[in-house]
Amino acid sequence: VKASSRGLGAKGDAKPGVDFKKEEPTMFWRSLMLGAALLGGANAFAPPARRARGTSLNGVAASTVNGVTVEGTLVPDQNFVLVRLREAEEESEGGLFLPGTAREKPRDGEVVAAGPGKRDPETGTLLETEVKPGDKIVYGEYDGTRIVVDGVDYQVLEDKNILLIYEGDKPTITNARLLEDRIAVKLNGAIDETTRGVLIADSAQKDYVAQDGEVMAMGPGLRTSMGDRIPMDIKVGEFARFRDFVGADIDMDGENFRVVRMSEIVAKWQ
């Protein structure tokens, strides 16, 4: 995954994330810290136990969150997940700096804790979180909230913002598992002439942005309020055209892919 290396971060930190000088603390991470403090207070009445600091199946032991002292375990709520970030790649394997042409540059990391899920407001059905601790995931550049736990960068985001899960060192089209109604489209390249034989200028080709391609992988579909899957109205091997300015660009296996939602597909063909 070719991730963004934009310098949005906490003071003194050049890693991607939220600028805490300009952004007010959100209610979400305030509640996370409160939960950690409450858990720490509750532990005061329990028998002392020896436990090394680090991650557990349901949270991360923390002494500071964004510079604020807390006691206890940081636990994601509802369908939120806590992701340990991987360092952003700034150079290609050939040593060239990656171009910043993608509209959205996905980031990746490993899920270290996940909430139990979110209840549908109408039916009360619990829609379980679709990832688990240990999963390697890719998510959109602007999704989630960055927090720093004991000096380590994490991202807190909803499972619906996760593009795909993968195995191994990096995602490939064969090891990637897309979530919800997301579709991986292998993009068509720029054409150098029209069907009537008119040559297209190089400058126009450079500005070309692919909006169609072959469907190579897709998720199981969205869930209804009762937790049932809504069938996908497209198949692997079909070709699709999607709306302008949607999706996230991902390089896998040396090919360019755009991950879009089913609702963003405007036409399909064999």
UniProtKB/TrEMBL annotation:
Q: Which Pfam families match?
A: Cpn10 (PF00166)
Sorted UniProt keywords? Chaperone
From what superkingdom does this record's organism come?
Eukaryota
| CDD domains linked to this entry | cpn10
For the keyword Zinc-finger, the answer is: no
Q: Does the keyword Nucleotide-binding apply?
A: no
One annotated GO molecular function: protein-folding chaperone binding
Q: Which InterPro entries match?
A: Chaperonin_GroES, Chaperonin_GroES_sf, GroES-like_sf
- Family stated for the protein in its record: Belongs to the GroES chaperonin family.
What HAMAP family would the database entry show? CH10 (MF_00580)
Q: Provide the protein name.
A: 20 kDa chaperonin, chloroplastic
**Biological source species:** Phaeomonas parva
